[in-house]
Amino acid sequence: MNLPDHLSSAPENLQKAILAFAEAVKQIDGKIRTAETSEAGSMNSFGEDQLKLDVLSDRICFTELEKSGVIAIAGSEEQSEEKVLTEGGEFSASFDPLDGSSLVDVNLAVGTIFGIWQGKGFMGKTGRDLVAAGYAIYGPRTTFIIAIDSNPTEFTLQSDGNWKMTIEKMEINEGKMFAPGNLRACAENKEYLALLDFWSENGYQLRYSGGMVPDIHQILVKGKGIFSYPGSESCPPKLRLIYECAPLAYVVEKAGGASSNLKGSLLDEKVEDLNQRTVICVGSKNEVDRCVKFLTV
Ligand code: FDP
């Protein structure tokens, strides 16, 4: 089955929004394969250096979302402010056009993350206002994962430009695999160090690439494991709520996994700032519970 057929039972405007991201991903895929991996000489709203590819990918997403005619407001991790796109548009879209920028030059897998929110704007909303979310991975294959109101589905980009379904129903169960982000925090965060010891002493398999998208995607494909990115005083959490954490938590929870910001589900965290950063633990339910227990003692 291809992507448009899979989406055909979704509301028409939502199909348009998702297909806009799928089209943007195809174009970004082309740029990643050929564009320069150097810096653009600019910084994003977080003060991080932008690659030429970050800027290109950002532009592509905005263009495709505007063309869809259904997105009222779009917010990108690369921009300091949200943009008004279509008057009367039904949804708002948040996205990180190229997540894992530090992996581009070494040719490891990177991704695009997106969330489609009901209504205009993000402030005051929670991940419960998402109506769909997904991501793409640019690796040896280019894949597009979409979750609407049930389990996520994976599509793989074909040489003719079509998206072919490759995993119909992604499901997260239980299992010993860990992807521990921000290990620098262990120097001050002794609870995280204790959790690291627990994983190491109990036969867990370490699988960490340094790219949040592939690191979480493996949990969905293997059906098990945990991704964590807590913080400490000098190494605070850096992952962003609306561009990265809420959309990925939505996908993981739709697959039967769990998400946490150490206070509850990430889907209940209220957006109070477009640049809000949060602790994230996502994956198998028991592993997320364990992570919360260790990190909140
Ligand atoms: P990057 O800085 O390379 O863009 O979202 C940002 C991200 O990558 C994630 O993909 C990744 O999980 C995380 O940062 C890794 O950050 P550190 O290695 O700086 O801890």
* Element order: H for helix, E for strand: HHEEHEEEEEEEEEHEHEHEEH
CATH class term of the largest domain: Alpha Beta
The strand order across the widest sheet is 4-3-5-6-7-8-9-10
Principal-axis shape: globular
Number of helices: 7
Low-confidence stretches: none
Distance between the termini: 47 Å
**How many distinct folded domains?**
2
Under the CATH scheme, the architecture of the largest domain is 2-Layer Sandwich
The number of distinct β-strands equals 15
Report the mean per-residue pLDDT as an integer. Answer: 95
Largest sheet report: 8 strands, mixed
User: By helix and strand content, what is the structural category?
Assistant: alpha+beta
CATH H level, superfamily name of the largest domain: Fructose-1,6-Bisphosphatase, subunit A, domain 1
Could you give a quick summary of the protein structure above?
By secondary structure, this protein is an alpha+beta fold. The protein contains 7 helices and 15 strands.
